[in-house]
Design brief:
single chain, 159 residues, alpha+beta, four-stranded mixed beta sheet, 4 strands, 30% helix, elongated
């Protein structure tokens, strides 16, 4: 609401006080500013007489909320950073190092060993065998043609 004070005197009514105008600004999307509409004129009182106007405007509307949550923004940022990492790594490996084929992946050895590292972590946390027994699985780079001599999970089954 806007209140304007100090207008001309009322004269014989409202105790001769100065005129006041009260303007209510209502929210109406899509309208920059409309003309004033006179709602009422309170001049039959002894004191505090005023004119009441209404005006519609989109400026009085609250700001619209963004449709993206913080999590969505973080995921978009993470996906963008991963894309920059992969594309930049490919270009660097190809153009500067001169790598060909699978060696163009940035940090290829780390990503090749990541599965084994995750398996080690799961084995350490989830398995019930003693901690000093070496891992019995084979990674991508290990000799895969050899036979496994014992069943690894026999101690988990009650017999």
């Amino acid at each position: 609401m806007l209140i304007y004070k100090g207008g001309d005197s009322y004269g014989s009514h409202c105790s001769g006080e100065k005129r006041r105008a009260v303007i209510m600004i209502s929210c109406k999307r899509g309208v920059t500013a409309s003309s004033f509409t006179v709602i009422s004129e309170e001049r039959e009182k002894e004191q505090e007489c005023f004119y009441l106007f209404e005006m519609d405007s989109s400026v009085a509307c609250p700001a619209e909320d963004s449709h993206l949550s913080v999590g969505s923004i973080l995921l978009i940022t993470l996906a963008s950073l991963i894309a920059v990492y992969i594309i930049g790594g490919f270009l660097y490996q190809r153009l500067v190092v001169g790598a060909k084929g699978m060696e163009q992946f940035p940090h290829f050895a780390f990503w090749q060993d990541l599965g084994n590292l995750v398996a080690d972590g799961c084995d350490f946390v989830c398995r019930s065998k003693p901690r000093n027994v070496p891992a019995a699985y084979r990674g991508v780079g290990d000799d895969q043609l050899g036979e496994e001599s014992e069943e690894r999970d026999d101690h988990l089954l009650p017999m």
